[in-house]
Amino acid sequence: MQCHSSTTLFSFFLPRPPTSPFISSSSSNPKSFTNCSKSSNHNNPRSILPSPDSHSHPNAATTRIPTPPWVKGPLRLQPHELANLSNNPSKPRKAQESAEEKADKALTAKESGVRGKKAMSKIVRSIETLPGNQQQSPVVVDSSSFSLGSSDSDDAKKKLPWVREEKVVRYRLKKDKVVTQAELVLDQELLERLRAEAATMRIWVKVKKLGVTQRVVDEIKSAWESNELAMAKIGLPLCRNMDRAREIVELKTGGLVVWTWKDSLVVYRGCNYEVTKNSGISNMVGDDIYGIPGEDLSLFQREGDRLLEGLGPRFVDWWMPKPLPVDADLLPEVVPGYMPPSRRWPPYGRPQLKDTELTSLRKLARILPTHFVLGRNRRLQGLAFAILKLWQNSNIAKIAIKWGVPNTDNEQMANELKRLTGGVLLLRNKFFIILYRGKDYLPSEVATLVSERETEIRRCHLDEESSRKKAADSVHIVVDPSLNSSKTGTLYEFWDIQNKFGGLVKGKKENELQLEAEKANLERELRIQERKLFILEMKIENSMRELTKLNSEWVPAENDADREILTDEERECFRKIAQKLRSSLVLGRRGVFDGVVEGLYQHWKHREVVKVITMQRTFTQVIYTAKSLEAESGGILVSVEKLSKGHAIILYRGKNYRRPQKFHSENLLTKREALQRSILMQRIGSLKFFAHQRRQAITNMRSELEQLQKSEERNGISKYVNQ
């Protein structure tokens, strides 16, 4: 069976031997070939062809092999010289080569996650820590010390480019787990059971921006009536500090937090819980409410509590780390006898802050604890008094704004505190208000000393003045006026003037003084208005000069006398065609310039009629624009239509229209010049309007001034008649 299949496979590749006259009779017998195959396949059963030893004699049969077209003679080979196609190796050659390459790469190749820098550094570290390697002291050759040339030069000691320094990686320390009160009090089995039940709860109490209020406490306690666990979902801003949220919930409810997940807390009511109707926040007392420093507080917290001690009650629902700030809403609204602090600054000084000082103070305020929490806009005298007390120990007062309080205005809060304290506002936003006491701030003790010293100096001045007056009264100096030939520049001249004209000055009435003051004010205002009118007229003159220069460059074209005449039917037809057109040419504030004419020619390239839309308000301006377009383009004005916004100017190119060789018109303005002309015209119009207002105001002032002068004349005449 094996021989038959081999022969069949071999006969597929070879031609029929009996047909060739050159094949000997020994090969023509199929039985002899079969016997030969059997004898040769005794040792190698998978081979198809006979072994070369059996056909080594010269009379062995030859086989004719097919040849390509460019080979002229036939190709004849012995059977043992043919290729053995059935003897395939177990693996292809390429597969063997790839397997060898993989075996070589296994030691040198870099693979992702296997031979990276971190993995290799771990391998090296583990090899170095082996017991056998610790005793040895291998000599390490530093390639960075290799240098070319003399070793004394500094350039030769530089590190080579391929030498890298080892990077020091500082890993972030994991935060220590805080041991909760539930883990200290409850048994482990009970705690695990409660946590398993808490993980399946889906009903919770929402804690909003105001924090753990009395409403939240009542809802938690109402949930404890039917279940020993109650879930609370913490919202902003308390969810940013879940440790503080757990403390507040345990403090206000009296329960134990047994399970925490993201922004949710599950509170256990306790083993000895009794349902009471009048149980709330008021039943809770303890040092933790007021933030009194204890043994477990850090130095920062203890110093913060010492700084805030005595300023007022603390804010229990504080969402940031301790110390707890003072609740400014619980401070008194009005403090009797409160006055802003006195401020003094040495002469030739500058109380204002520089930019660098302001920046440094803001950086310092960032790391400081929050001193007050505020949710009220007005009536902040109690807070201002507490800030002044704080400023004796700290330069900066940091005030946080409560979350969730309606109608809070940080700007109004900051202005009220600045007015009451006189401090410098460093920062104000919707979260914080930071006040600096200022360079000219005086503490209360220093201010008291300064006021006492000023009172003493004033008393000394008064004593000096009184003693001087007594000495002047005791000495009488008699001056004889006859000794002097003239009184000019002497005290006697002054006394004479006072005796003569002093009565006139004292006799003036209040109305006369008011008239004089009003007259002086009007004259001053009149001079100001005349000065402003002069400036406006100068501006108008300059603008008119520039506009005249631009208008000299624009030479409008004249209408052609020999124009085509359209009948009424043609005009109506072109008008309807233009109304149906979607494409149009929009005329802007520049008016008619060379770009508009070029756009008309581009439209007339594809259609006979063009529609120009203008936003000019007055109809006379629209007609002037239509006629100028007709003259500049050489077309025929069909009609002017009123649109919902603006007007549409319809132009027909004409029956004898030819596309011009040059699109730009030399007699028109460019796009930039047209914009400049439009701006100048607008500016001149506005300046003329304001100049008209100034003239009208000046006319009114002059009329009022004339009336005042007439009233003065009347008063003078009446006074003269009375005298």
TrEMBL record:
Species classification: Eukaryota, Viridiplantae, Streptophyta, Embryophyta, Tracheophyta
Compositional bias segments (type: Basic and acidic residues): 94-114
Composition bias type Low complexity, residue spans: 21-32, 134-151
GO BP: any one term: Group II intron splicing
Pfam families to which the protein is assigned, alphabetical: CRS1_YhbY (PF01985)
Span of domain CRM: 184-280, 351-448, 564-664
Protein name in UniProt: CRM domain-containing protein
Top-level division of the source organism's lineage: Eukaryota
Listed GO CC annotations: chloroplast; ribonucleoprotein complex
